[in-house]
Design goal:
Keywords: FAD, Flavoprotein, Oxidoreductase, Signal
Helix content: 25-40%
Strand content: 15-25%
Bound molecules: flavin-adenine dinucleotide, 2-acetamido-2-deoxy-beta-D-glucopyranose
CATH topology of the largest domain: Vanillyl-alcohol Oxidase, Chain A, domain 3
Radius of gyration: 24 Å
Pfam families: BBE, FAD_binding_4
Number of strands: 20
InterPro entries: BBE (IPR012951), FAD-bd_PCMH (IPR016166), FAD-bd_PCMH-like_sf (IPR036318), FAD-bd_PCMH_sub2 (IPR016169), FAD-linked_Oxidoreductase (IPR050416), Oxid_FAD_bind_N (IPR006094)
CATH architecture of the largest domain: 3-Layer(aba) Sandwich
Family: Belongs to the oxygen-dependent FAD-linked oxidoreductase family.
Number of helices: 20
Cofactor: FAD
Largest sheet: 7 strands, antiparallel
Shape: globular
Length: about 575
């Protein structure tokens, strides 16, 4: 026994002498109470460096108690963006894991949960640079937030320092935007605190349009294009990320750089689709603009009385979805329902068509839907500037929601439309109450497959983006919230992934499930290895870590310790 032991030791020694084994110790970022955590005097120094713009951050409920918010303000995305600790879906502010730390609207106690401790309320890039340098020097957990819209909770984290970009509010138009000396034509540069609504309004005043989503406060230069950025006009103009010409970014080393196809091109590649919050702090982004045009929003509701009928209706919709290919319509097809009846709300956007032509585009589907027994209700059209059609007045906020999604390939719609209806039937039968369909791919999104960026290639062959949603109210106990979330993931994921083509199918990283078991494949696909190598160049110490983001797999869920 002894000799065996010795010889094993000798072998180990021999190996370690010839090929030194790199021992990687788990390491943790500094938390309050740790010896390396900044003292009050250090925070005060940071505060002085940024002109007194350092804030103590509290949960939105506590902030609202102090401010005396109305119910309307609580539920307003525009108002919530003025509260540094607020997330739009306020479940992300809570820490449901035992011992739970909650701050609920009707609660009698309020704990900090996953809300940052401090925030830099930045208005110039130097404020962000100071925050980044401070976080590096003290090895702190950092988060970046603009609107707080994130559906995966990536813009908030326990015990973190928030780099808050909500007040980068400049909007500048030019007819000749230069990249590396070459004229890229008409463009708009927007700060990373500007919501879509304000960009649409400013563009309209210039008789211009840009490719953005349907929302008020989603930040075009924040998380939106780092995920992809879909729009009702994507079938015509491509994804929002396809139309970014440049970003200005504060890097993890504190440098403030211009990033485009000629300057840091590998970072430019990663920022367009490589995942929000993983690369640096975007100060502003420049988007191509287009001459304004006229568009029609066609809306109609279809009611079904049984789950079988709902399945048949969704199969019929899948068969008709190519009806709108020639005119490259964008469509939101939102189904709300149950194992019995459902309502399909269809909002279709047609560029350059009037109301009657838009109705003509819809009539084949609607008459076949009537034939299968669906009740068609409230058909109407509005013809206006596209800016007014997709720019919302405000975004409903202040509730609890999670999502799970997949990009559904065009081939499924062409070869197997009945599998779409079957998937809806299965989801409804298993208790899912809402499935949000987006016809925002195909057309130019597919034609842009030649653009070399980190957009998940699943976007280029997709026809639709389907999201199942789960809401709950605050009466659900913390342990049940955790169970509900696990249930939701385990019910929805197999159905949508099955429809989308299996375990390697893709999902939109901005509108997905933070509990996806294999986010590297699901959100980044074949781009993951290259993304990791680019992150190693620009963020070698993982200052910018978000759940499901690049290199998140070596950090715990809070992003505080390596695993
Ligand atoms: C009502 C609503 C409508 C939506 N509609 C659409 C749509 O039509 N099309 C679409 O594609 N998506 C849509 N989305 C999803 C949206 O793209 C994502 O929620 C996106 O992440 C929002 O980015 P944000 O910066 O506004 O949000 P935040 O919550 O502030 O941030 C989201 C992510 O981006 C990072 N981030 C924020 N600011 C910066 C910055 N300055 N620099 C670097 N990283 C930053 C954060 O760290 C986080 O990881 C919608 C969301 C909502 C709530
Ligand atoms: C930062 O300084 C300002 C101005 O002096 C002060 O009002 C604010 O409370 C300070 N912030 C913190 C977190 O102490
Ligand atoms: C809070 O309580 C009020 C009054 O009981 C109720 O109407 C409201 O729905 C509750 N809000 C939440 C978020 O539970
Ligand atoms: C953040 O800064 C902006 C711009 O100076 C200011 O209007 C706003 O009130 C500040 N927010 C907070 C919470 O202090
Ligand atoms: C920060 O990183 C960038 C990109 O690697 C590099 O160009 C720049 O020189 C670095 N700045 C400093 C101050 O080290
Ligand atoms: C289902 O039917 C009930 C009763 O008619 C109705 O109140 C409800 O709105 C319907 N639900 C949907 C999602 O259509
Ligand atoms: C649609 O056609 C009808 C009948 O031809 C006409 O009266 C109406 O003005 C048209 N509406 C639009 C929006 O073009
Ligand atoms: C729609 O109805 C027409 C006319 O009845 C029929 O020819 C066609 O096959 C139907 N289309 C689908 C997809 O069911
Ligand atoms: C989760 O699913 C299990 C098993 O189906 C069920 O018993 C439980 O009630 C569900 N919990 C919640 C909170 O939905």
């Amino acid at each position: 026994m002894l000799s065996l032991f010795l010889s094993v030791t000798a072998v180990v020694l021999a190996i370690s002498l010839t090929r030194p084994v790199q021992v990687v110790y788990a390491r943790c970022r500094n938390q309050p109470g740790d010896p390396g955590y900044p003292a009050a005097a250090d925070w005060s120094t940071l505060n002085n460096t940024i002109g007194g713009r350092l804030l103590r951050v509290v949960p939105s409920v506590e902030a609202c108690r102090k401010l005396g918010c109305t119910e309307a303000q609580w539920a307003s995305g525009i108002f919530r963006q003025t509260i540094p600790g607020a997330m739009n879906a306020y479940n992300w502010e809570q820490d449901y894991t035992p011992p739970a730390e909650l701050c609920l609207l009707n609660g009698t106690t309020c704990a900090q949960g996953n809300v940052p401790l401090y925030a830099v309320n930045a208005t110039i890039a130097q404020h962000i640079q100071a925050g980044v340098r401070f976080a590096r020097a003290h090895d702190l957990r950092v988060v970046i937030k603009s609107s707080g819209h994130d559906y995966l909770g990536r813009s908030t984290a326990k015990n973190s320092l928030l780099l808050w970009t909500a007040y980068f509010r400049d909007i500048t138009f030019t007819d000749h935007f230069l990249v590396g000396g070459a004229d890229q034509g008409s463009a708009v540069t927007v700060g990373s605190g500007v919501g879509l609504k304000n960009i649409y309004a400013a563009a309209k005043a210039q008789n211009k349009m840009f490719v953005g989503g349907t929302a008020a406060t989603v930040s075009a230069a924040g998380g939106y294009t780092q995920g992809a950025g879909h729009s009702a006009f994507s079938p015509i103009y491509g994804l929002a990320a396809d139309n970014v010409l440049q970003y200005s970014v504060v890097l993890a080393n504190g440098s403030y750089v211009v990033v485009n196809s000629a300057s840091f091109p590998n970072l430019f590649w990663a920022l367009r689709g490589g995942g929000a919050g993983s690369w640096g702090v975007i100060i502003d982004a420049t988007f191509r603009t287009f001459p304004i045009f006229s568009a029609t929003l066609h809306t109609v509701n279809l009611l079904t009385a049984t789950v079988e009928q709902t399945g048949d209706l969704m199969t019929l919709h899948a068969k008709h979805i190519s009806d709108w290919d020639n005119v490259r319509a964008g469509q939101y097809f939102y189904l709300t329902g149950s194992a019995t009846n459902s309502t399909l709300a269809l909002n279709t956007v047609f560029k350059g068509l009037d109301g009657n032509s838009s109705k003509a585009q819809m009539s084949a589907f609607l008459s076949n839907a009537t034939a299968l027994g669906a009740i068609v209700q409230g058909e109407s059209t509005i013809t206006a500037a596209p800016n007014d059609i997709v720019g919302f007045p405000d975004d409903q906020s202040g509730y609890n929601v999670i999502l799970s999604s997949r990009l559904i390939p065009k081939s499924i719609y062409v070869h197997s439309p009945s599998s779409v209806g079957a998937a809806y039937k299965q989801l409804l039968s298993q208790g899912i109450r809402s499935v949000l369909g987006h016809l925002v791919a195909g057309g130019q999104v597919s034609a842009n497959a030649n653009i070399d960026s980190a957009i998940h290639p699943a976007w280029r062959v997709a026809k639709t983006h389907l999201i199942a949603t789960q809401l709950w109210d605050d009466t659900l106990a913390a342990a049940d919230v955790l169970a509900l979330r696990r249930n939701f993931t385990s019910i929805v994921r197999p159905v949508l992934a099955g429809l989308a083509g299996g375990p390697s199918s893709g999902s939109y990283s901005n509108e997905g499930d933070v509990l996806e078991p294999n986010p590297q494949v699901t959100y980044y696909g074949p781009n993951y290895a290259r993304l990791k190598s680019i992150k190693a160049i620009y963020d070698p110490n993982d200052l910018f870590i978000v759940p499901t983001g690049v290199r998140s797999e070596i950090w715990n869920a809070d992003g505080t310790c390596t695993v």
